[in-house]
Write a structure and sequence with these properties.
Strand content: 15-25%
Strand order of the largest sheet: 3-2-4-5-6-7
CATH topology of the largest domain: Rossmann fold
Distance between the termini: 49 Å
Number of domains: 4
């Protein structure tokens, strides 16, 4: 469900600073906030000195993220005392939780406006009110709002674009707060997404990241599912790369894997969060698949997609997990041979079902397991990178090198970071690079003329 969006441009002269926490979806939202503020007349700046407006776009996934955000909000008090005209807005997933929003309002009375996750379309009106002297307080939505289309966007990169294709999640994994702060699944129209891809391509963008909490369930109940959507985008004329995240294993189909394998532009990197290798823990997490089903899926993907790079998410120390369960995760990691893994020690999120489960393993013991997991994955990832030495990869060059600013950097179709010598004219283009060396997180190569 979506609706067209427009607003009256209010010519505000001032400087705005936006700080973003969390996932790519939050960064995509911040690019829309930047677009709105730019049309309103703000200049976007990248430090918080002497600004007129500060916006914190928050994340609710992990407890330590919440603590860090609260600490940073508290530090703003002296800025407000120094500049009473400064307006401070807190938005995003953290503040969509009503108890957190009320806590922010009570603890930090100098915060002018607290928004949930579905109020971006109201931002111009709310800001106009703030600067006219009104104080809006807390504005949340108890129901899923229609998706506002045609929001202006100021992208962080000239060559890469984040495109949200859907919002919300219907899975209710027991450890996850996302369905409660992002709402139920809502998909954008395929026509609007295609229009956005074409528009960004003509502006010079060559790498597109399709975003959703579970992209595999895009278009549920409609004629255009995710498989059809990426096939449509793959057939748009031009030379570019299509990435997407995040995929849920229970909704990833062999048909989608075949589409990736037969495509011209879809990335050969598949991010498929497994979370645990234990069937008992997967059931407690409400993940909707078994260890065997997950392994069958990735083995099929590896057989069909040439040079597939497989990445994942893993949680260590879920409530009720014992060392036997953890050992199952280690064995799955060794069998799956992930190129990289985003690994986390379980963080309790109030309001989720897992927060109510008994947990008998100490944080110290979880840390020991965590270090063991990292050690195993480090060796697997290092071997994967070393396996590319001597190969030639087609790289999309995006800017200055990550290992050395004297180099350029880019990504291969299967998502590996590659740094190489070259002049700035290569930025924004595809180049063939022979890999000569592997670091523990990237590849080093030289251009094949």
């Amino acid at each position: 469900m979506s609706n067209s969006y427009s607003f009256e441009v209010i010519n505000i002269k001032g400087k705005a600073y936006i700080r973003t926490y969390g996932c790519q979806q939050n960064f995509a939202d911040s690019e829309k906030i930047c677009g709105i503020l730019t049309l309103l007349g703000y200049t976007i700046v990248y430090n918080d000195d002497d600004v007129d407006l500060m916006i914190f776009n928050t994340c609710a996934i992990r407890e330590n993220a919440k603590d860090r955000i609260f600490g940073n909000i508290g530090a703003l008090k002296h800025k407000k005392l120094k500049n009473p005209k400064l307006r401070i807005v807190i938005c995003g997933c953290l503040t969509q939780q009503r108890d957190i929003a009320e806590k922010v309002k009570k603890t930090f009375p100098f915060v002018d406006l607290i928004l949930g996750t579905n109020q971006l379309n109201s931002l111009p009106e709310l800001l106009a009110g703030l600067f006219n002297g009104s104080k809006h307080g807390v504005i949340l939505s108890d129901e899923d709002e229609p998706i506002a289309e045609n929001l202006p966007v100021v992208r962080d990169s000239k060559y890469k674009a984040n495109i949200s294709i859907m919002y919300g999640c219907d899975n209710y994994c027991t450890y996850c707060i996302v369905p409660y702060v992002r709402g139920r699944e809502r998909s954008r129209s395929a026509a609007k997404i295609m229009e956005e891809v074409k528009s960004f391509y003509y502006e010079g963008c060559r790498e597109f990241l399709l975003l959703g909490q579970n992209v595999n369930s895009y278009g549920k109940g409609t004629d255009v599912n995710f498989n059809r959507l990426i096939n449509y985008i793959d057939n748009i004329p031009g030379d570019f790369i299509i990435n997407f995240m995040t995929s849920h294993p229970k909704d990833l189909t062999k048909e989608l894997i075949d589409t990736i394998a037969d495509s011209k532009k879809i990335s050969y990197r598949l991010h498929l969060p497994v979370q645990s290798g234990s069937d008992r823990i997967l059931e407690a997490m409400n993940r909707g698949y078994t260890r065997r089903e997950y392994l069958e899926l990735i083995n099929y993907a590896k057989s069909r997609i040439p040079g597939l790079s497989l990445t994942t998410d893993i949680i260590v120390g879920f409530p009720g997990e014992d060392y036997a369960d953890f050992s199952e995760t280690i064995s799955l990691m060794k069998e799956a041979r992930f190129d990289s893994a985003y690994t986390f020690i379980y963080s309790k999120r109030p309001g989720t079902k897992a927060a109510e489960l008994p947990d008998y393993v100490s944080e110290e013991q979880k840390s020991i397991w965590f270090r063991e997991l990292l050690s195993v994955q480090s060796k697997i990832g290092e071997a994967a990178l070393n396996g590319y030495v001597g190969q030639t990869l087609r790289i999309f060059c995006t800017g200055k090198g990550r290992s050395d600013e004297k180099l350029l950097t880019g990504k291969s179709r299967n998502g590996f970071i590659v740094d190489f010598p070259g002049n700035d004219e290569k930025i924004g283009s595809f180049v063939n690079i022979k890999i000569i060396r592997a670091l523990n997180w990237a590849l080093i190569g030289e251009e094949i003329k």
